[in-house]
Amino acid sequence: CESDHNLPSSGDKAEVKADLQFYCLKQLKIALRKTTEKVYEEHTNAWQQLWATGISISQSKAKDALNGDKINATMYYVLSNVRSPLDPPPLTIPTGCYGNIHHTFQATNLWNDLSTFFNVQKATSFWLLTLQKQGCDNLVALGAPGVMQAMVLSFGSFKFSSQHLEFNMHPKFLHRDYTFRRLQYGNLTQVNVTVQLQEDNKAILLVALEKSDRPFYACDGGCLDGPVQLGHMKLQFPVKLTDPVTAILYISPDRKHLDDMRHAIHVQEVGEAPAHEHSVIALHKHGHHLGGLPTFFWVSVCFLIIVFHLFLFKLIYNEYCGGYQEKKTFQERHKVRYSKL
Questions:
Q1: pLDDT tens profile 217-228
Q2: CA 166 to chain CA mean position, Å
Q3: Are residues 304 and 221 in the same domain?
Q4: d(CA 25, CA 143)
Q5: In terms of domains, do 326 and 236 share one?
Q6: Fewest CB within 10 A of the end CB: N or C in the chain?
Q7: pLDDT value, residue 238
Q8: What are the φ/ψ torsions at residue 256 (nearest 5 degrees)?
Q9: Transmembrane ranges (predicted)?
Q10: Is residue 21 packed enough to be buried (19+ CB in 10 Å), middle (13-18) or exposed (0-12)?
Q11: How many domains in the chain?
Q12: Do 86 and 221 fall within a single domain?
């Protein structure tokens, strides 16, 4: 039982213990008055609120690829091991979170097997330690809602500064579809960021506000094109690669700040990120580098195989069955011929 009750800071340990026991029993009695249905409803609502924030990722058939089932299971176990306050405090802007330029999808030790209690505890401790050391300690201290936000930020290597949110995932890793849902920018604004692959194997960014208490703006890599105001409809941005490498997206409520960013980023070259190699896309979509072939191709192959086997069957039949009949006819002719002699 954890309490924010005003316990004596010093004095008799027995008095402190008695006071704590009284408080815990009081809370237990309050909980026992609730019906099973009420407890289940509160439990369900709490998890629904947590899962409102999250990530969607396209399914990959590549060997050892990280997919939604493993991601969701890991998030569930981590969240189950942290407190969820009944009255969560407001989520302030976590400046410096997430601090690593490498997104956590790359960290293989964070995605271990979860089949044993020891592995679950190990994964949980690794996750919480990583988030705390990468500038997300303020979010972790808020309990489950803060940890959820910190994990989603780490998936895309999103980072908050004092004046903007930047998307730091390198363009070479954008070879799958991602949707980062309801990133909290303060307590009253939620942002959705989607990475979508096009037919030409190039990725684009789609950004929209889930809700907001003020205008927000965004600009792509380098901020050379100037900020664009965001709304509830998805707004498309190209994925740009800069030299040196910088963030591919900046979001801020301060338009002037984004205007000034173009003079503060100091990039030498800015251009659209190149298309991903077909073999990489095919590996995720089909499990091998050859890629998918059209249905007509496989129908044609099946047809040729069937025709070949029919032809082969005919040859075998003529060789054995047809040859036997010819031999029998030949013998009968000679038999008649010699019988006449």
A1: 999 999 988 899
A2: 18
A3: no
A4: 24
A5: no
A6: C
A7: 95
A8: -65, -35
A9: 296-317
A10: exposed
A11: 2
A12: yes
Of 277, 305, 331, which one is at a domain's C-terminal end? 277
Of the three residues 250, 277, 304, the one that is the final residue of a domain is: 277
Q: Sorting pLDDT into bands at 50, 70 and 90, what band is 55?
A: very high
How far apart, in whole angstroms, are the C-alpha atoms of residue 20 and residue 14? 10
Global confidence as pTM? 0.77
Q: Which amino acid is located at 255 in the chain?
A: R
| Percent of the residues in the chain that have a pLDDT greater than 70, as a whole number | 86
Q: 323 Cβ partners below 8 Å, 6+ apart? A: none
**CA distance readout (Å), 310 to 99, 318, 320:** 66, 12, 15
198 and 162 both lie in a single domain = yes
List, in order, residues 6 or more apart from 245 with CB less than 8 Å away. Answer: 170
What digits encode the pLDDT tens for the residues 168-183? 999 999 999 999 999 9
Tally of residues, the chain: 341
Rounded average pLDDT over 59-80: 91
- Show the tokens assigned to 328: 């029998």
Q: For residue range 123-149, what is the model confidence (pLDDT) as tens digits?
A: 999 999 999 999 999 999 999 999 999
Contacts of 50 (CB under 8 A, 6+ apart): 79, 84, 144, 145, 148
Count the Cβ atoms, other than its own, within 10 Å of residue 201.
Answer: 15
Is the pLDDT at 319 greater than 70? The verdict is no
More confidently predicted of 329 and 106? 106
Q: Which of 267, 266, 262 lies closest to 250 in space, CA to CA?
A: 262
Residue 11: inside a domain: no
Q: Is residue 20 part of a domain?
A: no
DSSP string, 11-80: S-HHHHHHHHHHHHHHHHHHHHTS-HHHHHHHHHHHHHHHHTSEEEE----STT---HHHHHHHHHHHHH
Tokens describing residue 60: 């990959």
**CA 263 to chain CA mean position, Å:** 33
Whether residue 265 sits in one domain with residue 307: no
